[in-house]
Amino acid sequence: MFYTSYTFTGPTESLAILSAFLFQDGFECIEERPQEIEAYAPGTEVGLSAVVKNFMAKNKIQYTSRRVANENWNAIWEADYQAVAIGNECLIRAAHHPVPQQGVTYDLVIQPKMSFGTGHHPTTYLMVSALLHYGATGKSVLDFGTGTGVLAILAKKMGATEVLGIDIDPNSLENAAENLQVNGCQEVHLALGDLDLVKEGRYAMVLANVSRNTILERWHALLALLAHDGILIISGFYASDQAYFDKQGADSGLTMDWSQAKDEWLAMAFRR
Amino acid sequence: MAKEVTGFIRLQVKGGAANPSPPIGPALGSKGVNIMEFCKQFNARTQDRAGKILPVVITVYSDKSFEFIVKTPPVAIQLMEVTKAKKGSAEPNRKKVASVTWQQVEDIAKEKMPDLNTNNVTSAMRMVAGTARSMGITVSGNAPWDNN
Question: Is residue A8 part of a domain?
Answer without folding.
Answer: yes
